[in-house]
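Form 12-C: Joint structure prediction
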Amino acid sequence: MTATQRILAATGRAGLALGGTAAAVALGAVVLLAPVPQLAPDTAGIAVTPDRSAQSVVCTGGVLGLTRGDDPQLTVAHQPQRRSVGTGLIESAVPASDALEGAPVVVTLPVDAPDTSVAAAESTRAETDELRGLAAAECARAERTAWLVGGSTQVGRTTWIVLTNPGEVDATVDLTVWGERGLIDAPGTSGIIVGAGTQRALPLAGIAVDEASPVIAVASSGGAIAAHLQQSIVRGLDPSGVALVTPVQRPSTRHIIPALPVVGSQLALERATGDDAGDALTTLRMLAPGDIDSDVTVTLRPADGGTGQVITTTVGAGAVLDLPLTDLPDGDWAVTVDASEPLVVAGRTTVGGASGLDIGWFVPSGALQAGQEVLTSIAPTPGGVSARLHLYAPEGDVTATVDGREVLVPLGQSVVLETASNVGVRLAADGVLHASASYRGDGLIAGTRILPPPLAAQPVLVFP
Amino acid sequence: MHPRVTAVLIARRGGAPLQQTLDALTEQSRHPDHLVVVDAAGDDEATAALASIAPTQFVTAGAALGFGELVDRAVAALPAPEQTSSPYGGVEEWLWLLRHDSTPDARALERLLAAVEIAPSVAAAGPKQMDAAQPTMIAEFGETMTGYGASIALAERELDQAQHDRTSDVLAIGEAGMLVRRSTWHEVEGFDPALPHVDAALDLGVRIRLAGHRIVVVPHARIFIHESTPLFARAGTPPTLPPRVEARWRRRAQLHRRLVYAPLAAVPVHWVSLVPLALLRSILHLLRKRPTLVVGELLAALAVAFSGTAVSSARSRLARGRTVGWEAIEPLRMPRDEARRRRAIARDALLSAREDDRPPRPDFLPGGGLIVAVLALIGAIAASPLFGAPALLGGALAPLAPDLATLWAGLTATEDAAADPFAFVLALLGTLTPWHPSLALVLLWIIAVPLAGLAAWWAAASLVRRAGPAAVAAWLWALSPTLLVSLAEGRVAAVVAHLALPVLVASAARAPRSWSAAAIAGLAAAIVTAAAPTLVPALLLAWVAWMVLHPRRIGRLLTLIVPTAALWAPLVVDQVLRGTPLGLLADPGLPSATGEPGRAGLLFGWPDTSLVLDPLIALLPAGTPPLVALLVVAALVVVLPVLALVGLALPRGRRGLLPLGLAAAGLLTALALSGVALVTVGGTPVGLDVAPALGLYWLGLVLAAAAGLDGLRRGAAYPGLLAVLGGTAVVLPVLGALLLGGGAVQPSPDRTLPALVAAEAVSDPAQGTLVLTPVVGSGDPGRPGLAARIDRGTGVTLIEQRTMRTTRSLLGSGLPGTRAEADSAAVVDTGGSATATLAALAEREQLAELVANLAAPSGRDVTDTLDALGVRFVLLEQPVAGESAAELAASSSASLDATALLDPVGDTSAGRLWRVSAGASESAADTRVVMAAERPGAVVILATQLGILALTLLLAIPTSLRPRRPRSDSALDEPAPTFEVDNEFESEFGADPSGAPTGGRS
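Section 2 - Result
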């Protein structure tokens, strides 16, 4: 190979390297900058709406008491009167109960029934040596969580926790109990088995001794549970009231009680003096179960217009606060509770009458959305007891339709309608409406809520 | 008595040999008395030349006739032998058979006649056939048979040093220049027409001997052969004869003779054994790397088996002429020892020829061995968290199969899906640990790093001359980001592709020179494409380019695709018929979403940049922009491309071009894939894995850099060290993640479902478990959904994964080339898997309904659906992430709890488990149609596929002796194999056991 050839070969290789470098740089630029096709298959899953299931509501059953004798047994002291509404409904009894003769009724609307909703309400007039008063409760769906705000285990106060499992699957229930001083740690509150088709009744006194302001959270796994409290008071030797407390489903930053009736409160206070008059006051019981104190604004609105009251306070985290409403004149008050942290709330009133005292617990009602038609039941009442329907619109003027009759519900004003008892009422509105019913007689008070219809089954997104 | 000689000249073509032959005929010291010319050339020039010699007879014949038939034509044209009543006997007539390519020496006829005149028992005599091109070389000198009847020349291609001049009696002689007594010729009825190409003269010799005559060779009569006997039988000017045709002719002639010579009782046995023997010998041909002979072997056996009356007429011809027993020719056969000695000599000659052909390559030991040992240590340390695990889980990994039978059953096509080619790779892997197939994956994870190093060494050694650059290539490939990221993230297919790629490159490089390498390359290509379908376009391109670069070996290179095609054919048919050809690109294995490489990641060869950038950013001071981390990575690896490009400017720089081309193809493939997803999991599209494409890119870079280092010679030490240090430093975070168990891959039991389910699966392997996973899909952000699937037996296994199923969602997706789902009527018409796919889509809807009605309160009775799907358990997995998914998990759990049909079992490590209550599942036992049915004919297809693979494997197994390393001082030419001194030569140099030459001084 001559020198010339060698130089030529070297030049060729250098050119090759330069060309390679240029190609590499161009390739790098392409990789960094060139757009590439973006292809992806359809990722949408299949949205399937589950079949509508049979709707059922569980009634509380009658007022519980103890049998007389040396070995007192839990029994149903007074059987309730019930009104079930909904075409095609089927009533059946929960087969097993801790209480003698206790057979709470489950009202079921089968899938193929002509009606789309079902409702029922019960009321019981108690009149024994230990129990006196009017108790009423709407029948409610069994749920997995329930917050029972009410009851007391002080002297003379008896509170039963009643857990009903209407389903086909055993439920395991955990109870969490708060009191004035916070969480109450008690044995026997977790792992309570409530068999399928069984009603259990547990004395609250076994969990929280001498507790004036208990709040109980019920959580079930397995089957769903319908839970409620029954509280009765004996002042001195006089039975002075019985009430059923239905549950708040979950803590929230806003609760609305459409009607907290204050009837004969002065008389009640007078008759209650001498014996723990504290719980004769109209009171709001509140619990913020989280870790943060909650700033609370309570707005009280009287029926049919007029100025209300606004109370601000702070509910300490994890401790029950009984907020007395001392200067509240008689009337049907709509209570709005706005809180900075989720809490649960219920109101208690005590009525005094010629024939005696009675208490009632009034629990927040859920909102009926615009356009929803809800079927509700006004419980049958004994003689001398009248029923009222309470409507409250917190967000704007609403025209409600009650059994075809149009009623204007102005913003921030409770509307009270007299109604017959033992009837079904169809209620609809063109805005957000909260509604409840109250029953009152001489020295008798009770209330039922008008529950929003069950949420329409949401489609489930499935990626098979 | 003066003998009368009739020369018979058979001319197939004109040209210089014919002219020389004609000239030689006229110059004979003893002129033949008659000259019969047979013109089979059919060309005017040759006819004119033949006519110019003024033959006694001029016969024109068709070119298609064999030598024997042409001679018959000539003899038929002769006047009948003179009958004489002389008491001294008649005139002796002799035939001298000549071909156009056989030029006799001027005294050839004279000497032949002299030999036969003194021995009346001699009926035929043959001259010494010399090679016309090398007149001192013996082309052929006498023919005989081995004990098995194979024809063999007594002397062939030897330097003539008078070493055979004492030979006289032989079994047969070559046809060219044969002098045969005419009466004997008629007595044995001439040549056998069933032997048109080869062995006709041998057969004639056998029959002459059996007729009681002798045959001699006449060493001093010489004849110069221009062509060979088989070449003469071919038409064309000049004739060409592929070795495979000659082998077919020889085999056919031998089989024909076997049937003719055998005792009558043995003929049926021989006939029956024809085809089985041919099959056996075909396998032998494959093992000896002579695949081209296989077809000829079978054709020859079939031709002889169905040759009509050829055998019977040959047998009767032999019987008519025979006067003595077979034992008469026994001493003339070649002794067994001699045949064996000849074979050994031929083998040695081949070996030494191969040694000369061998390019220089670096020694594996000690440098390469040390590198692989260190890599094995690193790999074992990094994989130490996996020691003792029965299986691996995470990423695309799952247990392989519960047992060997299930593993192999995974290869058959079911009604709805052909098996993935990758299933064959998995089956092969699992068979390595037959007592526990899943263990093979654990072992693969442990030894992947050294295996990659070994493969890369092999690939680099075919490119470079020194050990250093090959060691650098082995190190960088074993610790390349693609391999380590694939190991950390459980991309099992990418790991397999990574190990097979260098083998493919190395064997493809040698494929033009070796059948064994071609077969290995074919198998490696099958493995690579099975594991990484996305590499197919780039590899096809490289294949075509390789064929263009080696046009003479195109036939051999074309066979590279055979194993790949065999594996892919059923899947290709299925996907195309279904209308989702794009689905062929889908990655095999469990679909699993992996990290995004990003454009810079592609450039640096990282399939998932988060594995290197996250630790790096954590290491850098807070607030450093991510670009700095990218620049650090770039600085560590930039030496590779620089070396590769510098290498181009060095001497022999062109060898870097092909690796660089591969690198560019790999990088562009990765770029094109980076935006493509073909599979969805839980509502999220899973992008195609770019790791194999990046592997090809990295392999090209590493090999080109090694070539550059090789070109730098002594200056390579520092750049090589720099490349190794940078390449090692950049993967330290991944190695750390592997060692600390931070990757996705985790040891797992040999099941994916809870132990309770696995225990039940022992008695009922088909039992279904409905597995629900709350996920947040990409389609409707924030809206959670339930990913649902039904696992059979103990859970997901790798072998049951099929891309036909995972790419089902392509149907109607509107991607290019994909059939719209609206065309489902058309799909039904195509039948087969398409119909099954539609059924599967319907089942998908059914599953969705079932899940929705289980996971939300519902009034539907799902007992029948659960039975139909064979579901015995329901498992609700923990959501991976997302608050809304957690809420959905809670509500689904509550709803499942409330279902009377399901008994809660409890929380397991995999999630919350329910058992379908006994009452519901009892009836299910009877109606079990849950396993996908096998497609009719699937076993035949599978057997064909396995057969093709097995034959390729036979061809791939290296059976020939390994060429010794060339010694720098060995200047021996190819030894003439038949030197008389051969034995001494061997004992002195060749058979020295202690002196196994290892070289290393090149």
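Section 3 - Comments
Chain A has two helices and 35 strands. The mean pLDDT of chain A is 87.
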